[in-house]
Amino acid sequence: MQGRAARELGQAARAAAPPVLELAVHRKTDAARRPLGTILQEMGALSQDGLVRALEIQASQAGFLGDILLAHGMITETDLTTALSRQFSTSFLTSDAPLPDRRLIEILGVRRCLALYCLPWERAGDVTVVACARPAQFGFYRPELERIFGPVAMVLISETDLHATLLKTQRTRLKLWAETCVDERESCRMLQSRSFGRVLRFAVLVIAALVLLAPQAALLGLTLIATGFLLLTSLLKLAAAIAVHRRPPAPEPRIRLLRARRPIVSIMVPLYKEPRVIPRLINRLSRLTWPRELLDILLVVEEHDHATRAALDACALPRWMRVVPVPDAPLKTKPRALNYAMLFARGAIIGVYDAEDAPEPDQIHRVVKCFQDGPPDLACVQGALDFYNARTNWLSRCFTIEYATWFRIVLPGMQRLGLAVPLGGTTLFFRRDILESLGGWDAHNVTEDADLGIRLARHGYYTQLLDTVTLEEANCRAVPWVKQRSRWLKGYAVTWLVHMRAPRALWRQLGAWRFFGVQLLFLGTLVQFMFAPLLWSFWLMLAGLSHPLQASIGGPVMLGFFAVFVMSEAVTLSVGYLALGGHRHRHLRLWLPTLHGYFPLAVLAVYKALWELISAPFYWDKTAHGEHGAACDQVTVAGGLVASS
Questions:
Q1: Contact 82, 47 (CB under 8 A)
Q2: CA–CA separation, 601 vs 480, rounded Å?
Q3: Residue 645 has pLDDT above 90, yes or no
Q4: Which of the residues 84, 131, 174, 326 could staple to 119 if both were Cys, CB 3.0 to 4.6 A apart?
Q5: Alpha helices in 278-393 (DSSP H)
Q6: Where are the domains of the chain?
Q7: Interhelix angle for 478-499 vs 503-518, to 10°?
Q8: pTM more than 0.85
């Protein structure tokens, strides 16, 4: 079908003049081409010492010589395009050239154009002129292109101009793909329907009616549900703590996925209304010691976020760091921005950082090694998160304790127990081929990370927790904290609803054990916060007062309820104590009892989340950053350069 469409276009253009074809010539063999470095030297664009250094780097890296020279600032993109045009005896197009034939691009597909770095430009007789930004690879793609278009001829275009041309011609398609790339059966975008809101409102009304008509029975039923989930969650925490502190089994021999030549790693950093963090962010990312020629950092910013874009324009970004504006649309979410930016990423590994992150300098080295040593089904590596402003106030201290418990005990324990691991929103690294096969992130889900973790597990992939730390800024003011937590809890509810559309399919894909884990994690978290006031009522018994249920169900049952409640408190404090064993946060152990005043904030957040789930399921309550700095901000990395290793 594609070949027939291309031939029909060729017949229409057969009699037309071939202005672009005149720029293309017959291909030369690799042996007949002059070395790129020699051409650049003859042009006066590259010194002998620079060429020797670049060739030494290329000997051990998975990269093109031109990319290495660009990454280290030895040449400009214009120098490279000019030299390549001489090497391949052809000319080049720029973004100022007449626009390509949109029909040809649609035949190949915009995503395939980006993957091949090739843009079918126009038909000239029987020949299709293809603009290519990677001429050394054109021979590999020629059979595919000729199968679709018939005879092809190559002209050059820079990567920057290729992207600019695609944005001029395919902007709407790119926007639509970023919002709908996840299969509808696994996406929450259908929650926008009015019927969904009516169902939720009806459920709330039913619960309220039961409470009014039979308050004692409703109180007992809800208390049983809340206590049951509390017991199971506490047992999970306990099992996770035991699993984490048990010696892991010896690793089995693995087939190395990524060989000795190190891969390009693309890191996407979504930014929205955060001009204050830009200088700090660039300085922190410049501390990464991964080789610059293999580092591709995309600063992803909304098109109409003029303040952030102005802050970025004011910075002299290194070649390996670039800005990706996301076209404006009513839906403005982090996952939509990530999907869009991934189209333009170069790497075989895709990473995600948040705007306020300060990762460990050697983090990417450790991530790549983890992928190299991992099994074929290893799709994601998740690092640990911590806070650099933990001492700011009481709220930041409690937040730090909670994160330490989650990333040091619960998540690693869930991994060792064989449960599906919900991902955090940052310090995530994916094998690109697997991420693309799943459609990326659900653009409508406000906790796209947790949702993606479950989708990875459903499709048979594995997530590895890695002991590398990224420091973040703790949300240490009560109102912003509640807003942020309400978004997370709303996302938990949305994720549970999406994956429970077809519970039998979920059971079949995950198995009974991991299916149970999903129920406990998502539904259990929501139930416990929703009905936490019922659980807190057991403090009355500790104070020697009678409980409202005591007269109707008797002492032994009440004692059982009370025992579960006390046991859960003991588990929470004990697991928190273990999580704070490192020297960095050991002093926070004294603050563990104050968590009793911290978790009630989450109750406010869950009711806000439930209201938004009915009224605005896709609303993204943005968290402001930039109030606090990290120790690494005290020293500026000059020019954004760190020695490659």
A1: no
A2: 11
A3: no
A4: 131
A5: 278-285, 306-313, 334-342, 363-373
A6: 2-180
A7: 140
A8: yes
